[in-house]
Amino acid sequence: MLTISDVSKTFGGRTLFEEVTLQVNRGDRIGLVGPNGAGKSTLFALILQKESPDTGNITFQRNTTVGFLPQESAPAGDETVLELATAITPEVEKLQKQLKAWEAEHPTELDHHDQHDNLHARFDELGGYQLEAKAKQILSGLSFRESDFNRPAREMSGGWVMRAHLARLLVQEPDLLMLDEPTNHLDLEALLWFQEYLKEYAGAILMISHDREFLNQLVGSIVEIRQSHIFRYRGNYEDYLTQRAAAEEQLLAAYKNQQREIAHLMDFVNRFRAKNTKAAQAQSKLKQIERMEKIEPPASEDKKINFSFPQPQRSGLKVITLEGIHHSYGPNVVYSGIDYQAERDQRTVLVGPNGAGKSTLLKILAGVLPVQAGTRELGHNVKAGYYSQYRVEMLEPQNTVLDEAMNTPQRVTEQFIRTVLGCFLFRGDDVFKRVSVLSGGEKSRLALVKLLLDPPNLLLMDEPTTHLDMPSIDALVGALKQFAGTLIFISHDVYFIRALANDVVHVNAGKLTRYAGDYQYYLDKTSATSARAALTAGAKPELARAKPVEKIANVKTKEQKRQEAEQRQLRSKARNEQKQLVTSFEKEISSLEQKQTELTAELEKPETYQKPGRAMEINRELIYVQERLAEIGPEWEAAAGKLADLDRAATES
What we know:
Strand order of the largest sheet: 5-6-7-3-8-9
Number of helices: 19
Largest sheet: 6 strands, mixed
Radius of gyration: 30 Å
């Protein structure tokens, strides 16, 4: 469906891609990963033909449709949310506008004019009116209320506009769906709906995401961009981590072996190059070294950055106490007489369905919302700090990023602050940007840096991982593990929760239920169906909306039924042949992986190096095995994708 062949791309003297090749087949589910700046967004731009490769080709199978959701800043005009969601082609969008303008200008002539009738007929011919039912179901799944459908999209926040554009792509159902951080703007229930919807999606999906759980649930392969090359791994994100670690271990062993061999040859050269009787042999050894295909050591660019953040003053054992708290928004009562207490060193995650009051509770704890009834009492030496992805008014617009970060009472060096900023995606000249020109995500990240550079001993955080890539999330986890204070947070990132939480509070229907253990303890106690579903436990059973949009059944003639029976027989035969091909590939892959394990184990044995030439022989075999694995992987994936298509066609028939 999509073929990238020997593509190279250079920006400003820096090579982003060097002769990379990638095949995307129908039904593929691919996660695109790599450090910030590796070229993920550039690869998307090349595929979308917004950029041109320096060399190589990017080709699509004929009539392939492509849909793209950017990470930020999707446009919104005067159209309503529903009109935006149904504007799946330029012609449909144009007809929508023409019909709307005509109806506004001729409110009493709707059924009495050829122009209107022609517009209406063409819109109906393109399925415009059927699109509305589909769009409404998808918009509901993404947490829009029915009252939102006819609101002008420009009246809504950027996050909701992004959801409307996502709905448009799902209504359109392109053959290739390209998503850049699609979960950034979704609440938990919408994310769960979206995740289940994508599991049934008919087209191929290529996505950039920092959400490990989302990738684990959806993708069948991971494509990593590293050192100007593309590496493809079978399986989900956890499988990728395991496979990459094993590959790096094997590469390191091969590299060390080659270095030992080079050192041995150079020892001979250094000893005998000055002797007339041995000079020719020494020269031969040098040429042998030159002819070697040098093995590069594993890249160290992804190593975790370790540094120590400033630590707050130690608080008393009782950090904060709420007693008899009442809170309501007009007639909507959120809490009626709740009690809560947090103690020093607790790492508490608040979970529960949307609208249960998690953010309200966090704001009451932070003192952002005044107590309407009851008492809020801070413990001895407690200083509370609140971080929200939407709360950035603490920043000074005229300052640069570096100036703003340096404005801390803590004694830290500029080099240390630059290191911290780099971990949170402010690199190079980015530190000299004015705060006033930063995006919302950049301001959120800068506010997070400031909080970590001068942390309170009671830290309250609402979705702190939004707008962070995976290395930055790891840096944040590392900082919070060091944090010598109390942490209460809300997050939909299961990895982040598992890494930090030692206490879980479930919020639902105005009640707080405490689970005095880590997240796994909470899952075990609640018998949750999945780690992510447990975050919204207690929600009304509306997730039935997660089912794919139902299609209207057609009444079939006898001839149609006969033709379909013949087609099923042909598909069955094709499926059996395809299954045999997939099985043969899997057997070869299993055999190659076993051979790879055996060769690597032999390389690690000291006696291997006592047999002249044996190490070189093993390395040659290992290189062949690794090359064949790299070659057969895409072949297997193409065959497995075709088999999945055949299985899906059989199910639909």
